[in-house]
Design a protein that fits this description.
Radius of gyration: 30 Å
Largest sheet: 6 strands, mixed
Strand order of the largest sheet: 7-9-11-13-12-10
Number of helices: 11
Number of domains: 3
Distance between the termini: 42 Å
Order of helices and strands: HEEHHEEEHHEHHEEHEHEEHHEE
Bound molecules: adenosine-5'-diphosphate
CATH topology of the largest domain: Heat Shock Protein 90
Shape: elongated
Length: about 425
C-alpha cells in the first residue's frame, strides 16, 4: 500500500441533507465536514447483490492512505489484505462487527488497526483504519528499554550476591580474600548507583525535553569548571588536557547551565576513559558556528582516508538562520569503527569489543548528551577513526548579545 503525503484529490464537498429542519441540516453538514477532517481513514462500503463491495463514501485521510481516485471503486482494488476483506465480508453478511490489525508490508510497512462496523442500511459497512506504526515503535522501545535496564542492573546485583555467598561460606576466615571481595563489591555497588543516577537523569531530561531552555550561560566558564573537576583523574592517567576557549563573556549560549555542564562532563569523561595513558585530550570552543548542509555532511571528514567516519547524531529541525556556539572535545584514543557510529546514542549501547572487561560505563552517557542537546535545539556530530581518536562536537544556540542585531555575521565556518 502506498501512502501519499498530499491528498490524492480535493476533498469531496460534504454530502447535502435535505431536512425540513434547517438546524438539523446545519448539524449534519457540520458532522460531515468533521468526518472529512478526521485523521483516521474512514470508508463506507456497500454490496449490491452478488457484486463485489464498492466504496460509496470516503474521508480525506482514507483517500490519501489508500490512494482512492473516486468513490465507486471496488474495495478489493484499494485494500487487498485477505484478512480485512474477509472481515468486511463477515460484517456485511452477518451484521457483526470486526476489529483486527494488519501490517501493510513492503519497504515502508505500516501497522494498521481496522474496525469494521455494520451500518443501518442493508449490506453497508463502515471501515475505519488507524495508523499505529509509531505507537507500536514506541511500545517496542519501552519494552526493550525495560529489558535492557533490568539486565544492566541484574549483572552487578548477581555479582554482589555471589560475593556475599562466598564471604558467608568458604572465604569467611580468609582476611585477604575478604578485602579483595569487598573492594569488588564496592565497585559493583557504585556501578549500580551510577546506573540508577543516569536512568533518573535521563527520565528527568526527557520530561521537559519539549520545553527549550530560556536562560543563558557562559560555555567557557562551564568548560573550565568541568575540566578542573577532572584534573585528579587526568593526572592519575598521566593525560594532558588542552583547553582552547574564548575569554569569559564571549561564548554565551541559550541554555540550561547544569545540563550543558552534564554534556561537557559526559564527553570529557569518555575522552579521558577511552584514551591511553599519556595521550592528549583537547577542548575547543567556536563562538560563531553555523549549521548547514556543509557542516552536517557526513562525507566531509579528514579522517575518512584512515578508515574513519563522521556522522551527525542529532540535528535541529531548522538551523540555517541560527548561529551556534560549538564545543569540540577530541581525543587520541582507540577511536570507534564507522559501523558503530549510528548507534552511539542508543541507550545502553557500548561498542562491542569494549564491553568486556570494562565495567565503568553505563552506556547511557551519550543518550543523555543527545536528549539534552535536543532540548536545546542544537546538534551533535561525531568523527572517529579506529586507532586515531574521536571528536564529538556539540552545538548550542548562541545568545544574541548587546549590540548584536538580527543581522549577525553569516560567515559559514564548517568544521
Ligand atoms: P559509556 O558509559 O559506556 O561510556 P556512553 O553512552 O558515554 O556510555 O558511550 C557509549 C559507547 O560509545 C561507549 O561504551 C564506548 O564504546 C563508545 N565511546 C564513547 N565515547 C568514546 C570515545 N571518546 N572514544 C572511544 N569510544 C567511545
Amino acid at each position: 500500500m502506498r501512502v501519499l503525503t498530499l491528498p490524492w484529490r480535493r476533498p469531496a464537498p460534504p454530502p447535502q441533507f435535505e431536512a425540513a429542519n434547517p438546524a438539523a441540516q446545519t448539524e449534519f453538514t457540520l458532522f460531515a465536514a468533521a468526518l472529512q477532517e478526521l485523521p483516521d481513514a474512514v470508508l463506507v462500503v456497500r454490496r449490491e447483490g452478488a457484486a463485489l463491495s464498492k466504496i460509496v463514501a470516503t474521508n480525506a485521510a482514507a483517500r490519501e492512505m489508500l490512494r482512492i481516485p473516486i468513490d465507486g471503486e471496488q474495495l478489493v482494488s484499494v485494500l487487498r489484505d485477505p484478512g480485512v476483506l474477509a472481515a468486511v465480508e463477515t460484517t456485511l453478511t452477518t451484521g457483526k462487527e470486526n476489529t483486527l490489525t494488519y501490517d501493510t508490508g513492503g519497504l515502508r510497512s505500516q501497522a494498521l488497526r481496522v474496525w469494521v462496523r455494520p451500518l443501518p442500511t442493508a449490506q453497508t459497512a463502515l471501515i475505519v483504519l488507524r495508523d499505529e506504526t509509531e505507537a507500536r515503535q514506541v511500545e517496542r522501545m519501552r519494552v526493550d528499554f525495560l529489558a535492557n535496564a533490568s539486565h544492566e542492573l541484574r549483572t552487578p546485583l548477581a555479582s554482589l550476591s555471589g560475593f556475599i555467598e562466598t564471604l558467608q561460606g568458604h572465604a569467611k576466615q580468609d582476611a585477604d580474600a575478604r578485602d579483595r571481595f569487598l573492594d569488588i563489591m564496592a565497585g559493583q555497588a557504585k556501578r549500580m548507583s551510577r546506573l540508577i543516577d543516569d536512568l533518573l537523569s535521563l527520565s528527568r531530561i526527557e520530561m521537559n525535553e519539549h520545553v527549550p531552555p530560556s536562560g543563558t550561560c557562559d560555555l567557557s566558564l562551564i568548560a573550565r569548571e568541568v575540566a578542573d573537576g577532572l584534573l585528579p583523574t587526568i593526572s592519575t592517567k598521566n593525560l594532558r588536557i588542552e583547553l582552547d576557549v574564548p575569554s569569559p563573556g564571549e561564548a554565551i549560549a541559550v541554555g540550561d547551565r547544569d545540563q550543558i555542564a552534564q554534556v561537557v562532563q559526559n564527553l570529557l569523561d569518555n575522552a579521558v576513559k577511552y584514551s591511553p595513558a599519556g595521550a592528549l585530550v583537547s577542548l575547543t570552543i567556536e563562538t560563531d558556528a553555523a549549521l548547514n548542509a556543509n557542516t552536517l555532511d557526513a562525507e566531509r571528514t579528514s579522517l575518512r582516508d584512515s578508515g574513519g567516519g563522521r556522522l551527525t547524531l542529532l540535528a535541529p529541525e531548522r538551523s540555517y538562520q541560527t548561529r551556534y556556539v560549538a564545543i569540540r572535545i577530541a581525543d587520541r584514543g582507540r577511536g570507534i569503527a564507522r559501523e558503530h557510529l549510528p548507534r552511539l546514542t542508543d541507550r545502553f549501547y557500548r561498542v562491542p569489543s569494549q564491553k568486556t572487561g570494562e565495567i565503568s560505563g553505563t552506556g547511557l552517557g551519550l543518550a543523555i548528551v543527545k536528549h539534552i542537546v535536543n532540548r536545546h535545539r542544537g546538534a551533535v556530530l561525531v568523527e572517529s577513526a579506529p586507532g586515531l581518536g574521536t571528536a564529538f562536537t556539540v552545538y548550542f544556540p548562541r545568545a544574541v548579545t548587546m549590540g548584536e542585531g538580527a543581522s549577525a555575521p553569516t560567515v559559514t565556518k564548517p568544521l
